[in-house]
Amino acid sequence: MKDKETIIELKNISKSYDKETMVIDNLNLEIKKGEFVTLLGPSGCGKTTLLRMIGGFETLTSGEILLHGEDISKLPPNERPVNTVFQKYALFPSMNIYDNIAFGLKIKKLDKAVIDEKVKRALEIVDLEGFEKRGINTLSGGQQQRIAIARAIVNEPEILLLDEPLGALDYKMRKEMQLELKEMHKELGITFIFVTHDQEEALTMSDKVVVMADGKIQQVGTPEEVYDTPSNIFVADFIGESNIFNGVMTDSGKVRFCDTEFECVDFYPPGTKIEAMVRPENVHIVKPSKGMLTGIVSSSIFKGIYYEVLVMHGKNEFTAQSQKELLKGTEVGIAIEPDGIHVVPYNINKNHYTGVIDEEMRVRFVDFSMKLDLTKVFDGSYIKDGELYGNNGVALNAEGKKIDAYFDPGKADLSDVPDEGLVAGHIISIIYKGDHYSYIVRSKNDKDYYADDDWLWNIGDYVSVIIPEDSIEYKLL
Protein backbone atom coordinates (compact mmCIF):
# COMPACT_ATOMS: atom_id res chain seq x y z
CA MET A 1 0.00 0.00 0.00
CA LYS A 2 1.25 3.46 -0.89
CA ASP A 3 2.74 5.52 1.93
CA LYS A 4 0.03 8.08 2.73
CA GLU A 5 2.62 10.73 3.66
CA THR A 6 4.28 10.71 0.24
CA ILE A 7 2.92 13.54 -1.89
CA ILE A 8 5.20 13.25 -4.90
CA GLU A 9 7.36 10.44 -6.21
CA LEU A 10 9.85 10.59 -9.06
CA LYS A 11 10.39 7.15 -10.59
CA ASN A 12 13.25 6.41 -12.98
CA ILE A 13 13.27 9.98 -14.28
CA SER A 14 15.57 10.71 -17.22
CA LYS A 15 15.92 13.78 -19.40
CA SER A 16 18.11 14.17 -22.46
CA TYR A 17 18.04 16.86 -25.11
CA ASP A 18 19.82 14.60 -27.58
CA LYS A 19 21.43 11.19 -27.46
CA GLU A 20 24.71 12.62 -26.18
CA THR A 21 23.42 15.06 -23.54
CA MET A 22 21.92 13.35 -20.50
CA VAL A 23 20.73 16.01 -18.06
CA ILE A 24 18.88 13.76 -15.58
CA ASP A 25 19.97 10.13 -15.37
CA ASN A 26 17.48 7.55 -14.03
CA LEU A 27 16.66 9.54 -10.89
CA ASN A 28 14.38 8.35 -8.08
CA LEU A 29 13.10 10.48 -5.20
CA GLU A 30 10.21 10.58 -2.72
CA ILE A 31 8.97 13.81 -1.16
CA LYS A 32 6.69 13.80 1.87
CA LYS A 33 3.71 16.07 2.30
CA GLY A 34 4.62 19.31 4.06
CA GLU A 35 8.40 18.89 3.71
CA PHE A 36 10.81 21.68 2.84
CA VAL A 37 13.04 19.91 0.32
CA THR A 38 16.06 21.59 -1.23
CA LEU A 39 17.67 20.44 -4.48
CA LEU A 40 21.31 21.43 -4.03
CA GLY A 41 24.17 21.21 -6.46
CA PRO A 42 26.57 23.07 -8.73
CA SER A 43 25.49 24.80 -11.93
CA GLY A 44 24.60 22.29 -14.62
CA CYS A 45 23.84 19.42 -12.24
CA GLY A 46 20.18 19.16 -13.37
CA LYS A 47 18.39 20.59 -10.35
CA THR A 48 16.46 23.31 -12.22
CA THR A 49 15.57 20.86 -15.01
CA LEU A 50 14.19 18.50 -12.37
CA LEU A 51 12.13 21.30 -10.81
CA ARG A 52 10.78 22.32 -14.22
CA MET A 53 9.74 18.73 -14.94
CA ILE A 54 7.78 18.63 -11.67
CA GLY A 55 6.12 21.90 -12.65
CA GLY A 56 5.31 20.70 -16.16
CA PHE A 57 7.59 23.14 -17.99
CA GLU A 58 9.90 20.35 -19.23
CA THR A 59 8.89 16.98 -20.66
CA LEU A 60 10.39 13.71 -19.45
CA THR A 61 12.45 11.51 -21.74
CA SER A 62 11.45 8.56 -19.58
CA GLY A 63 10.03 7.81 -16.14
CA GLU A 64 7.02 8.91 -14.12
CA ILE A 65 6.05 11.76 -11.81
CA LEU A 66 3.47 10.50 -9.35
CA LEU A 67 1.29 12.86 -7.30
CA HIS A 68 -0.63 10.96 -4.61
CA GLY A 69 0.18 7.84 -6.63
CA GLU A 70 -1.22 9.17 -9.93
CA ASP A 71 1.05 9.87 -12.92
CA ILE A 72 0.95 13.59 -13.80
CA SER A 73 3.91 13.63 -16.16
CA LYS A 74 1.67 14.27 -19.19
CA LEU A 75 -0.41 17.03 -17.58
CA PRO A 76 0.22 20.66 -18.63
CA PRO A 77 1.40 23.09 -15.93
CA ASN A 78 -2.02 24.68 -15.41
CA GLU A 79 -3.57 21.32 -14.52
CA ARG A 80 -1.03 20.50 -11.79
CA PRO A 81 -1.63 21.60 -8.17
CA VAL A 82 1.77 23.28 -8.29
CA ASN A 83 2.93 26.90 -8.44
CA THR A 84 6.42 28.16 -9.24
CA VAL A 85 8.45 31.14 -8.02
CA PHE A 86 11.26 31.89 -10.47
CA GLN A 87 14.57 33.68 -9.88
CA LYS A 88 13.32 36.37 -12.25
CA TYR A 89 10.03 37.05 -10.55
CA ALA A 90 8.08 37.63 -13.82
CA LEU A 91 5.81 40.22 -12.22
CA PHE A 92 3.64 42.40 -14.48
CA PRO A 93 5.09 45.95 -14.31
CA SER A 94 1.88 47.47 -15.72
CA MET A 95 -0.21 46.07 -12.86
CA ASN A 96 -0.27 47.08 -9.21
CA ILE A 97 0.43 44.59 -6.47
CA TYR A 98 -3.21 43.60 -5.99
CA ASP A 99 -3.66 42.77 -9.67
CA ASN A 100 -0.37 40.86 -9.81
CA ILE A 101 -1.41 38.64 -6.91
CA ALA A 102 -5.01 38.28 -8.08
CA PHE A 103 -4.13 37.46 -11.69
CA GLY A 104 -4.52 33.69 -11.41
CA LEU A 105 -7.67 33.99 -9.31
CA LYS A 106 -9.31 36.24 -11.90
CA ILE A 107 -8.56 33.72 -14.62
CA LYS A 108 -10.44 31.18 -12.51
CA LYS A 109 -13.32 33.72 -12.42
CA LEU A 110 -13.71 33.63 -8.66
CA ASP A 111 -16.05 36.05 -6.90
CA LYS A 112 -14.44 39.44 -6.16
CA ALA A 113 -15.09 39.14 -2.44
CA VAL A 114 -13.28 35.79 -2.42
CA ILE A 115 -10.38 37.26 -4.40
CA ASP A 116 -10.13 40.21 -2.01
CA GLU A 117 -9.99 37.90 0.98
CA LYS A 118 -7.36 35.63 -0.58
CA VAL A 119 -5.15 38.55 -1.69
CA LYS A 120 -5.37 40.12 1.77
CA ARG A 121 -4.37 36.82 3.40
CA ALA A 122 -1.46 36.33 1.01
CA LEU A 123 -0.13 39.81 1.75
CA GLU A 124 -0.37 39.12 5.48
CA ILE A 125 1.71 35.98 5.07
CA VAL A 126 4.47 37.83 3.21
CA ASP A 127 4.22 40.77 5.64
CA LEU A 128 3.17 43.37 3.04
CA GLU A 129 -0.31 44.31 4.24
CA GLY A 130 -1.57 47.60 2.81
CA PHE A 131 0.63 47.42 -0.31
CA GLU A 132 -2.25 46.52 -2.66
CA LYS A 133 -2.19 49.73 -4.71
CA ARG A 134 1.59 50.12 -4.92
CA GLY A 135 3.31 49.75 -8.29
CA ILE A 136 5.83 46.97 -8.84
CA ASN A 137 8.61 49.42 -9.76
CA THR A 138 8.34 51.10 -6.33
CA LEU A 139 9.37 47.90 -4.52
CA SER A 140 12.81 46.71 -3.46
CA GLY A 141 14.16 43.39 -4.68
CA GLY A 142 13.18 41.69 -1.45
CA GLN A 143 9.63 43.09 -1.63
CA GLN A 144 9.25 41.97 -5.24
CA GLN A 145 10.36 38.52 -4.20
CA ARG A 146 7.65 38.45 -1.54
CA ILE A 147 5.00 39.53 -4.06
CA ALA A 148 6.09 36.69 -6.36
CA ILE A 149 5.63 34.28 -3.44
CA ALA A 150 2.25 35.82 -2.57
CA ARG A 151 1.09 35.39 -6.17
CA ALA A 152 2.07 31.72 -6.00
CA ILE A 153 0.57 30.87 -2.60
CA VAL A 154 -2.72 32.73 -3.23
CA ASN A 155 -3.70 29.84 -5.50
CA GLU A 156 -3.31 27.46 -2.52
CA PRO A 157 -1.12 24.92 -4.34
CA GLU A 158 -0.25 21.60 -2.77
CA ILE A 159 3.36 22.12 -3.81
CA LEU A 160 5.34 25.36 -4.13
CA LEU A 161 8.38 25.23 -6.42
CA LEU A 162 11.08 27.86 -5.84
CA ASP A 163 13.81 28.16 -8.47
CA GLU A 164 16.68 30.07 -6.81
CA PRO A 165 14.28 32.87 -5.79
CA LEU A 166 16.88 34.55 -3.54
CA GLY A 167 19.66 34.66 -6.10
CA ALA A 168 19.09 38.30 -7.10
CA LEU A 169 19.13 39.63 -3.52
CA ASP A 170 22.11 41.07 -1.68
CA TYR A 171 23.69 39.04 1.11
CA LYS A 172 21.88 40.68 4.04
CA MET A 173 18.47 40.56 2.35
CA ARG A 174 19.05 36.95 1.31
CA LYS A 175 19.76 35.96 4.92
CA GLU A 176 16.58 37.70 6.10
CA MET A 177 14.47 36.05 3.38
CA GLN A 178 15.85 32.61 4.24
CA LEU A 179 14.35 32.92 7.71
CA GLU A 180 11.12 34.44 6.39
CA LEU A 181 10.65 31.64 3.86
CA LYS A 182 11.18 29.08 6.59
CA GLU A 183 8.50 30.78 8.70
CA MET A 184 6.13 30.95 5.72
CA HIS A 185 6.60 27.25 5.18
CA LYS A 186 5.67 26.52 8.79
CA GLU A 187 2.58 28.74 8.58
CA LEU A 188 1.33 27.43 5.23
CA GLY A 189 2.07 23.76 5.88
CA ILE A 190 2.44 22.99 2.17
CA THR A 191 5.29 21.22 0.44
CA PHE A 192 8.21 23.43 -0.63
CA ILE A 193 10.70 22.25 -3.26
CA PHE A 194 13.55 24.75 -3.38
CA VAL A 195 16.47 24.93 -5.82
CA THR A 196 19.80 26.51 -4.89
CA HIS A 197 23.55 26.15 -5.36
CA ASP A 198 24.14 27.88 -2.00
CA GLN A 199 25.11 25.29 0.62
CA GLU A 200 24.46 27.56 3.59
CA GLU A 201 20.98 28.36 2.24
CA ALA A 202 20.16 24.66 1.93
CA LEU A 203 21.40 23.82 5.42
CA THR A 204 19.56 26.77 6.99
CA MET A 205 16.13 26.24 5.49
CA SER A 206 15.54 22.58 4.69
CA ASP A 207 13.96 19.54 6.28
CA LYS A 208 15.56 17.40 3.57
CA VAL A 209 18.52 18.16 1.30
CA VAL A 210 18.93 16.40 -2.04
CA VAL A 211 22.54 16.81 -3.20
CA MET A 212 22.91 16.48 -6.97
CA ALA A 213 25.80 16.27 -9.40
CA ASP A 214 25.92 15.40 -13.05
CA GLY A 215 22.20 14.59 -13.27
CA LYS A 216 22.30 12.12 -10.39
CA ILE A 217 21.46 12.21 -6.70
CA GLN A 218 24.58 11.94 -4.56
CA GLN A 219 22.87 11.95 -1.16
CA VAL A 220 19.47 12.56 0.43
CA GLY A 221 19.29 13.45 4.11
CA THR A 222 18.69 16.05 6.76
CA PRO A 223 21.04 19.06 6.81
CA GLU A 224 22.84 17.45 9.74
CA GLU A 225 23.27 14.14 7.90
CA VAL A 226 24.69 15.57 4.68
CA TYR A 227 27.09 17.79 6.64
CA ASP A 228 28.24 15.36 9.34
CA THR A 229 28.16 12.09 7.36
CA PRO A 230 28.60 12.87 3.64
CA SER A 231 28.10 9.81 1.45
CA ASN A 232 31.12 10.52 -0.75
CA ILE A 233 33.91 13.02 -1.27
CA PHE A 234 31.86 15.11 -3.70
CA VAL A 235 29.28 15.84 -0.98
CA ALA A 236 32.02 16.48 1.60
CA ASP A 237 33.82 18.87 -0.74
CA PHE A 238 30.72 20.66 -2.04
CA ILE A 239 28.99 21.24 1.29
CA GLY A 240 31.14 23.34 3.58
CA GLU A 241 34.89 22.81 3.87
CA SER A 242 36.59 19.45 4.27
CA ASN A 243 40.07 18.04 4.65
CA ILE A 244 40.08 14.94 2.43
CA PHE A 245 42.82 12.31 2.42
CA ASN A 246 43.41 8.88 0.94
CA GLY A 247 43.97 6.23 3.58
CA VAL A 248 43.53 2.65 4.67
CA MET A 249 41.75 0.89 7.53
CA THR A 250 44.33 -0.67 9.85
CA ASP A 251 41.96 -2.32 12.34
CA SER A 252 38.39 -2.19 13.58
CA GLY A 253 37.71 1.50 14.23
CA LYS A 254 41.24 2.53 13.25
CA VAL A 255 42.35 4.32 10.10
CA ARG A 256 45.68 5.51 8.75
CA PHE A 257 46.23 8.63 6.66
CA CYS A 258 48.96 11.29 6.53
CA ASP A 259 51.36 8.61 7.86
CA THR A 260 49.42 8.59 11.15
CA GLU A 261 46.98 6.14 12.72
CA PHE A 262 43.75 7.58 14.13
CA GLU A 263 40.78 6.12 15.95
CA CYS A 264 37.46 6.60 14.13
CA VAL A 265 33.83 5.59 14.49
CA ASP A 266 33.54 3.86 11.10
CA PHE A 267 34.19 0.15 10.77
CA TYR A 268 35.52 -1.52 7.61
CA PRO A 269 37.76 -4.58 7.20
CA PRO A 270 41.49 -3.99 7.76
CA GLY A 271 43.22 -3.20 4.48
CA THR A 272 40.19 -1.44 2.98
CA LYS A 273 41.23 1.59 0.95
CA ILE A 274 39.27 4.61 2.13
CA GLU A 275 38.84 8.35 1.82
CA ALA A 276 38.91 10.17 5.16
CA MET A 277 37.05 13.46 5.60
CA VAL A 278 37.67 15.88 8.48
CA ARG A 279 35.85 19.20 8.85
CA PRO A 280 38.12 22.17 9.77
CA GLU A 281 36.25 22.70 13.06
CA ASN A 282 37.24 19.14 14.02
CA VAL A 283 40.96 19.78 13.48
CA HIS A 284 42.15 20.88 16.93
CA ILE A 285 45.40 22.85 17.14
CA VAL A 286 47.32 21.94 20.28
CA LYS A 287 50.86 22.07 21.61
CA PRO A 288 53.26 19.96 19.51
CA SER A 289 53.75 17.52 22.38
CA LYS A 290 49.99 16.97 22.66
CA GLY A 291 49.30 16.37 18.97
CA MET A 292 48.74 13.13 17.09
CA LEU A 293 50.97 14.70 14.47
CA THR A 294 52.82 17.99 14.13
CA GLY A 295 52.97 20.61 11.41
CA ILE A 296 54.03 24.13 10.51
CA VAL A 297 51.55 26.99 10.14
CA SER A 298 51.67 28.29 6.56
CA SER A 299 48.95 30.95 6.88
CA SER A 300 46.37 32.35 9.31
CA ILE A 301 43.47 34.38 7.86
CA PHE A 302 40.79 36.18 9.90
CA LYS A 303 37.28 35.09 8.83
CA GLY A 304 35.18 37.18 11.19
CA ILE A 305 34.47 34.72 14.00
CA TYR A 306 37.62 32.58 13.71
CA TYR A 307 40.99 32.37 12.01
CA GLU A 308 41.35 29.92 9.14
CA VAL A 309 44.71 28.28 9.73
CA LEU A 310 46.60 26.19 7.17
CA VAL A 311 49.06 23.70 8.65
CA MET A 312 51.57 21.71 6.59
CA HIS A 313 52.43 18.21 7.78
CA GLY A 314 55.09 17.21 5.30
CA LYS A 315 53.36 17.48 1.91
CA ASN A 316 49.88 17.25 3.44
CA GLU A 317 47.86 20.38 4.17
CA PHE A 318 45.30 20.66 6.98
CA THR A 319 42.72 23.44 7.22
CA ALA A 320 41.75 24.25 10.82
CA GLN A 321 39.83 26.91 12.72
CA SER A 322 41.36 28.82 15.61
CA GLN A 323 40.07 31.51 17.96
CA LYS A 324 43.46 33.22 17.90
CA GLU A 325 45.92 34.15 15.19
CA LEU A 326 48.92 31.87 14.72
CA LEU A 327 52.08 33.23 13.16
CA LYS A 328 53.40 31.72 9.96
CA GLY A 329 56.17 29.25 10.73
CA THR A 330 54.82 28.26 14.17
CA GLU A 331 55.10 24.56 14.97
CA VAL A 332 51.81 23.13 16.24
CA GLY A 333 50.24 19.82 17.06
CA ILE A 334 47.06 18.48 15.45
CA ALA A 335 44.53 16.37 17.33
CA ILE A 336 41.35 14.87 15.89
CA GLU A 337 38.66 13.15 17.95
CA PRO A 338 37.33 9.81 16.60
CA ASP A 339 33.89 11.27 15.78
CA GLY A 340 35.58 14.09 13.85
CA ILE A 341 36.76 11.63 11.18
CA HIS A 342 34.26 10.34 8.62
CA VAL A 343 35.38 7.45 6.45
CA VAL A 344 33.96 6.11 3.17
CA PRO A 345 35.39 3.22 1.12
CA TYR A 346 37.43 4.25 -1.89
CA ASN A 347 35.48 3.84 -5.14
CA ILE A 348 37.14 0.76 -6.60
CA ASN A 349 35.17 1.14 -9.85
CA LYS A 350 37.22 4.18 -10.89
CA ASN A 351 39.15 3.74 -14.13
CA HIS A 352 37.81 0.32 -15.10
CA TYR A 353 37.07 0.16 -18.84
CA THR A 354 35.84 -2.71 -20.99
CA GLY A 355 37.48 -3.36 -24.36
CA VAL A 356 37.23 -6.01 -27.06
CA ILE A 357 40.10 -7.87 -28.76
CA ASP A 358 40.06 -7.38 -32.52
CA GLU A 359 41.49 -9.46 -35.38
CA GLU A 360 44.84 -7.67 -35.07
CA MET A 361 45.07 -8.67 -31.40
CA ARG A 362 44.59 -5.06 -30.33
CA VAL A 363 42.16 -4.15 -27.57
CA ARG A 364 39.65 -1.51 -28.65
CA PHE A 365 37.94 0.64 -26.03
CA VAL A 366 35.37 3.41 -26.51
CA ASP A 367 38.00 6.18 -26.55
CA PHE A 368 41.26 4.43 -27.38
CA SER A 369 42.87 1.21 -28.55
CA MET A 370 46.21 -0.38 -27.75
CA LYS A 371 48.42 -3.32 -28.53
CA LEU A 372 48.35 -5.84 -25.71
CA ASP A 373 50.60 -8.79 -24.83
CA LEU A 374 47.79 -11.35 -24.70
CA THR A 375 50.02 -13.86 -22.93
CA LYS A 376 49.51 -11.70 -19.83
CA VAL A 377 45.77 -12.23 -20.10
CA PHE A 378 45.49 -15.92 -21.12
CA ASP A 379 47.26 -18.04 -18.49
CA GLY A 380 49.91 -20.34 -19.88
CA SER A 381 49.54 -19.00 -23.41
CA TYR A 382 52.40 -18.19 -25.79
CA ILE A 383 52.88 -16.64 -29.19
CA LYS A 384 54.50 -18.52 -32.08
CA ASP A 385 54.79 -17.19 -35.61
CA GLY A 386 52.44 -14.37 -34.72
CA GLU A 387 49.72 -16.75 -33.49
CA LEU A 388 48.42 -17.14 -29.93
CA TYR A 389 48.51 -20.69 -28.48
CA GLY A 390 47.22 -22.15 -25.24
CA ASN A 391 49.32 -24.27 -22.89
CA ASN A 392 47.97 -27.37 -24.68
CA GLY A 393 49.52 -26.23 -27.95
CA VAL A 394 46.16 -25.46 -29.57
CA ALA A 395 45.71 -22.08 -31.29
CA LEU A 396 43.48 -19.68 -29.35
CA ASN A 397 40.88 -17.51 -31.04
CA ALA A 398 41.00 -14.34 -28.91
CA GLU A 399 38.99 -12.13 -31.27
CA GLY A 400 35.84 -10.79 -29.65
CA LYS A 401 36.94 -11.58 -26.10
CA LYS A 402 36.29 -8.80 -23.57
CA ILE A 403 39.07 -7.29 -21.51
CA ASP A 404 38.88 -5.15 -18.35
CA ALA A 405 41.59 -2.49 -18.20
CA TYR A 406 42.35 -0.57 -14.99
CA PHE A 407 44.81 2.12 -13.99
CA ASP A 408 45.44 3.77 -10.62
CA PRO A 409 44.57 7.50 -10.73
CA GLY A 410 47.84 8.15 -8.91
CA LYS A 411 49.80 6.75 -11.88
CA ALA A 412 48.22 9.18 -14.35
CA ASP A 413 49.31 12.69 -15.33
CA LEU A 414 47.52 15.50 -17.15
CA SER A 415 48.82 17.45 -20.13
CA ASP A 416 47.49 20.36 -22.18
CA VAL A 417 48.76 18.63 -25.35
CA PRO A 418 45.67 16.76 -26.66
CA ASP A 419 47.52 13.93 -28.42
CA GLU A 420 50.10 13.31 -25.71
CA GLY A 421 47.94 11.05 -23.57
CA LEU A 422 45.87 7.93 -24.05
CA VAL A 423 42.63 9.89 -24.04
CA ALA A 424 41.57 13.57 -23.95
CA GLY A 425 38.59 15.42 -22.52
CA HIS A 426 37.35 18.29 -20.37
CA ILE A 427 37.87 18.49 -16.59
CA ILE A 428 34.47 18.30 -14.89
CA SER A 429 35.51 17.89 -11.24
CA ILE A 430 38.37 18.98 -8.97
CA ILE A 431 38.83 17.89 -5.35
CA TYR A 432 41.88 18.75 -3.25
CA LYS A 433 43.10 15.78 -1.22
CA GLY A 434 45.76 17.08 1.15
CA ASP A 435 48.82 16.86 -1.09
CA HIS A 436 47.36 16.60 -4.60
CA TYR A 437 44.30 17.32 -6.74
CA SER A 438 41.89 14.60 -7.80
CA TYR A 439 40.37 15.19 -11.26
CA ILE A 440 37.60 13.71 -13.37
CA VAL A 441 38.17 14.13 -17.11
CA ARG A 442 35.19 13.45 -19.38
CA SER A 443 35.86 12.40 -22.97
CA LYS A 444 33.78 13.33 -26.02
CA ASN A 445 32.19 9.87 -25.74
CA ASP A 446 30.92 10.70 -22.24
CA LYS A 447 33.39 8.43 -20.43
CA ASP A 448 34.99 9.58 -17.18
CA TYR A 449 38.70 9.16 -16.41
CA TYR A 450 40.11 9.74 -12.93
CA ALA A 451 43.57 11.21 -12.52
CA ASP A 452 45.61 12.67 -9.68
CA ASP A 453 47.93 15.58 -10.34
CA ASP A 454 50.04 17.94 -8.22
CA TRP A 455 49.17 20.91 -10.44
CA LEU A 456 45.97 22.93 -10.25
CA TRP A 457 43.94 22.94 -13.46
CA ASN A 458 40.53 24.55 -13.97
CA ILE A 459 37.05 23.19 -14.53
CA GLY A 460 36.49 23.03 -18.27
CA ASP A 461 40.17 22.75 -19.24
CA TYR A 462 40.75 20.41 -22.19
CA VAL A 463 43.49 17.99 -21.19
CA SER A 464 44.90 14.63 -22.12
CA VAL A 465 45.32 11.82 -19.61
CA ILE A 466 48.79 10.28 -19.74
CA ILE A 467 48.95 6.70 -18.48
CA PRO A 468 52.18 4.70 -18.72
CA GLU A 469 51.36 1.40 -20.44
CA ASP A 470 53.12 -0.60 -17.74
CA SER A 471 50.72 0.96 -15.20
CA ILE A 472 47.62 -0.50 -16.86
CA GLU A 473 46.33 -3.78 -15.44
CA TYR A 474 44.32 -6.16 -17.62
CA LYS A 475 41.89 -8.95 -16.83
CA LEU A 476 39.91 -11.29 -19.08
CA LEU A 477 36.16 -10.94 -18.56
What labels describe this entry?
5-stranded antiparallel sheet, 8 helices, alpha+beta, 477 residues, 6-stranded mixed sheet, globular, 32 strands
Give a structural overview.
- This protein has 477 residues and is α+β, with helices and mostly antiparallel strands.
- It has 8 helices and 32 strands.
- Strands 6-7-8-3-9-10 form a 6-stranded mixed sheet, sandwiched between helices. Strands 13-12-11-14-20 form a 5-stranded antiparallel sheet.
- It is globular, with a radius of gyration of 28 Å.
- The two termini are 42 Å apart.
- The model has no long low-confidence stretch (mean pLDDT 91).
In short:
This protein is of the alpha+beta class and 477 residues long. It contains eight helices and 32 strands.
Task: Identify the overall geometry.
Answer: globular
State the helix count. 8
Strand line-up of the largest beta sheet = 6-7-8-3-9-10
Multimerization status: single chain
Q: Kindly name the structural category.
A: alpha+beta
Separation of the first and last Cα atoms: 42 Å
The gyration radius over C-alpha positions equals 28 Å
What is the mean pLDDT? 91
What percent strand? 35-45%
What's the total number of strands? 32
Question: Which sheet architecture does the biggest sheet show?
Answer: 6 strands, mixed
List unreliable stretches of 5+ residues.
none
Question: Topology, pairings included?
Answer:
Blueprint: E1 6-18, E2 21-32, E3 36-40, H1 47-55, E4 62-67, E5 70-71, E6 82-85, H2 97-107, H3 112-125, H4 141-153, E7 159-163, H5 171-188, E8 191-196, H6 199-205, E9 208-213, E10 216-221, H7 223-228, H8 233-238, E11 243-251, E12 254-257, E13 260-263, E14 273-278, E15 284-286, E16 293-302, E17 307-313, E18 316-322, E19 331-335, E20 341-345, E21 352-357, E22 362-364, E23 369-371, E24 382-384, E25 387-389, E26 402-407, E27 413-415, E28 423-432, E29 437-442, E30 448-453, E31 462-466, E32 472-476
Parallel strand pairs: 3-8, 3-9, 6-7, 7-8
Antiparallel strand pairs: 1-2, 1-4, 4-5, 9-10, 11-12, 11-14, 12-13, 14-20, 15-19, 16-17, 16-19, 17-18, 21-22, 21-26, 22-23, 24-25, 26-32, 27-31, 28-29, 28-31, 29-30
